[in-house]
Design brief:
About 25% of the residues lie in helices and about 25% in strands. By secondary structure, the chain is of the alpha/beta class. It has 3 domains: about 10-270, Rossmann fold (3-Layer(aba) Sandwich); about 345-390 and about 405-435, Luciferase, Domain 3 (Luciferase, domain 3, Roll), CATH 2.30.38; about 435-535, ANL, C-terminal domain (GMP Synthetase, Chain A, domain 3). It has helices at about 10-15, 35-50, 75-85, 100-110, 115-125, 190-200, 220-235, 270-275, 300-310, 445-455, 495-505, 530-535; strands at about 25-30, 30-35, 65-70, 90, 110-115, 135-140, 150, 170-175, 185-190, 210-215, 240, 265, 290, 315, 325, 340, 345-350, 355-360, 385-390, 415-420, 425-430, 435-440, 440-445, 460-470, 475-480, 515. The chain contains 12 helices and 26 strands.
Amino acid sequence: METRHNLADAIRRNAHSADRGINRIGLVWGDHELSWTELDEKVDSYAHGLRELGLNRLDAHPARVAIALPNRPEFALAYFAALRAGLVAVPVNPGYTGRELHQLLSDAAARVLIAGADVHAAIDEFSAPLPDLDRRFLVGDGDRPGIAPMADLAVAGGPVEPVTGDEDLAVLLYTSGSEGRPKGAMLSHRALLANHEQLARIEPPPIGRDDVVLLAVPLFHAYGLNSGLGSVAYHGACGVLVDSMDSFDPATINRPSGRRLSALLGVPAMFAAWAQVADPTVLASVRIAVSGAAPLEPAIARQFEAAWGRPLAVGYGLTETAPALTTTLAEPAPKEGSIGRALPGVDVRLVNAAGADVWRSDRPTGVDEVDDFEDDAAGSPGTDPGEIVVRGANLFSGYWPDGRDGPDADGWWPTGDVAYADAGGDLFVVDRLSELILVNGFNIYPAEVEQVLMAHPAVAEAAVIGVPHLPSGQKVKAYVVPRMSAREGSPVTAADLAAYCARNLARFKCPTEFEFAAELPHSATGKVRKAALRAEGLAHVDG
C-alpha cells in the first residue's frame, strides 16, 4: 500500500523515535507539560472520537472540524487529531464576533466546533442557522447547556492510522479578509510538509530538535500554525504556548515555563517590545529571532539588534503558501528592509503590468534589467517593481470549495504583492498590488508614503489608502495616530504633516487629506486592516 504523508505522522515519529528521546517534552503551557508520547496518545484518543461521530457525508472533501481556541494544548490536540482522523481542520479566530463566526462556519460547512465558552455564546447570541454544524465541544472554564466538554470526545483505542495525506485537503485556512470577505485557502498535507522541508534546506536550518520555540503568534494564523506549531512537530522540538499576544509579557517570557527559549517567532510589535526590555538575561538563551506576518519597520530591527546584539531575521509569505516564501536567513548578509531570498525549492518571478518578467530567482541575470527603481523609493538600485509570482510545492490548492484562483497549469501563482530585486538578488516589497494608488496615471505605493509619515517624530502610526477623486481618479488619504509632542504638549497638525511630506515626497505622492485617530484597526497579527479604514469611520482625535 502506498504511503501518504500526513503532518500528524510527525507526532508519532517524535513519540517513538529513539533519536528524538522517549518522553521528550513537546509542548509547555504555563506549569503544564506534555511529552510527545502523551501527545501521541491523546491525539489518538481524540481522532477515535472524531471518527466515531460518523461525519462522513457524501462530499468532495472530508468533513471540516472548526477549532476556535487561543494558544493552548487543546488546540494542538484537536488540530492533529482532525488530521489523523482524515478530516479537515479549520482554525478560527476565537475573537470573532457572532456574525463573523457564522459567516466562516457557514462558508466552511463545518460539522464540528471545538471552542471556548465565549465563542459558543457569541454563536448562540447571533440568531442565524448553522445547519451543517452537528456537534459542539467546550474547552476551558464556563458552561454552555447542551454542549459537551472536549474531554467527552476522547475515546480509548489503539493507534489511529491516517487515511489521508499528500494532495488531500488538510487545512482550510481563511485569509484575513483585508481585501473584503475572507476566503478559505485549501492547504494540502503536501503543502504543509513541503514548507518545512524547504526551510530545513537553509544552512544552518532555522529550527532543530533541541530548540525551545516560542508559540505566541495565534495558531489560527498560518504563521503560528505551520511555521510555529507545525515546525515544532516536524522537528520534534519543544513549543512554549502563550495564550495570546495580548497576554505576552516581553520581560518575563522565559519565566512561566522555566524553560529557556532558543527560537523566537514573532510579529513586529513583539520585537519592538523586546527592544525596550532592560534585563539582559531575558533573551540571553535565544539564538534565532524571526519576524513575520506583517511588514517590519527597519527602525524596530535596528533597536532589537542594538538591545540584544543579534540580528532580527525576516520571513515573508502568505496564507496561500503555507506560509513562508522568502527569508533573510537565505541571504549571505541580511539587508535592511529586505525580505531576503526565496527558500530552496521556491521559484520567484517579478512580473510587470505588461506580463513580462523583470526578474527571476532561477536566472536573476538572464532577464533584461531596466532602469533603476523609479524615484529610488527604498534607497537601493535594482529592477523596476513587479508583482511577485511564485511556484513551489508549498502552494495551496486554490480557494474553497472548488479550487478557484489557485496556481496555473505550470504551478505559478500571483501573490498580489509588488517588489523589486536589487543588484544582489535580494527582494524588497513595495506594496500590495491591490492597494496601488493611481493619481493622474502615476503609480503610488502606500508603503512608501507610510514610511515617510512614520519617520515624523510626532507620528505613532500611519496608514495610507487611495480614495476616489475627480478628475485625478484617486487622491492619497492618510490616517494618522499622533504621538504627543514632548516640546509643545500638543499633537501634530495636518498642516505640519503636509509640509513634512512635501519635503520628502514627490508632489503627486503627498497625501491631500489627513484623518487623525486614537488608534487604527489591526488584524490579529498586527497588520492594519485597510478594508476597515475604507468601510468604517474612525473617532477623531481633538487638537
